[in-house]
Amino acid sequence: MKPTAREWVRKAENDFKVASPDAACFFFQQCIEKYLKACLVEGGRQQADRLPRKEFIREKRMKLCLRD
User: Fold this and answer.
1) Which single residue of 17, 19, 38, 44 has CA 20 to 30 Å from 30?
2) Residues 51 and 37: beta-carbon distance below 8 Å
3) Contact 4, 48 (CB under 8 A)
4) pLDDT of residue 48
5) How far apart are the first and last CA of the chain?
6) Helix 3-18 crosses helix 24-42 at what angle (to 10 degrees)?
7) Which residues contact 57 (CB under 8 A, 6 or more apart)?
């Protein structure tokens, strides 16, 4: 796995670990976005400094990673 993708996965897993019942939806949404960014970087679709904004990721959802 590329180092940048690995870093996004680490961040996503940290969000998952700290999710409390009161803020679970927020942290899980953050976790999914970071996993999506890791997928984009690993697949060579985006460079680390040119990742899509949250709004773009929400629009495209999982289609970005599951197309292949």
Assistant:
1) 44
2) yes
3) yes
4) 55
5) 17
6) 170
7) 33, 36, 37, 64
pTM: predicted TM-score of the whole model, two decimal places: 0.64
Taking a C-beta distance cutoff of 8 angstroms, is the pair 23, 17 a contact?
no
Q: What is the largest CA-CA distance in the chain?
A: 36
pLDDT at 66 over 60: no
CA gap 39, 46 in Å, rounded: 9
Please report, rounded to a whole number, the percentage of residues in the chain having pLDDT higher than 90.
Answer: 13
Q: Which residue's entry shows tokens 């927020």?
A: 26
Give yes or no for a contact between 14 and 27, defined as CB atoms under 8 angstroms apart: no
Distance CA 13, CA 51 (A): 19
Task: Please state, in angstroms and rounded to a whole number, the distance separating the CA atoms of residues 46 and 6.
Answer: 14
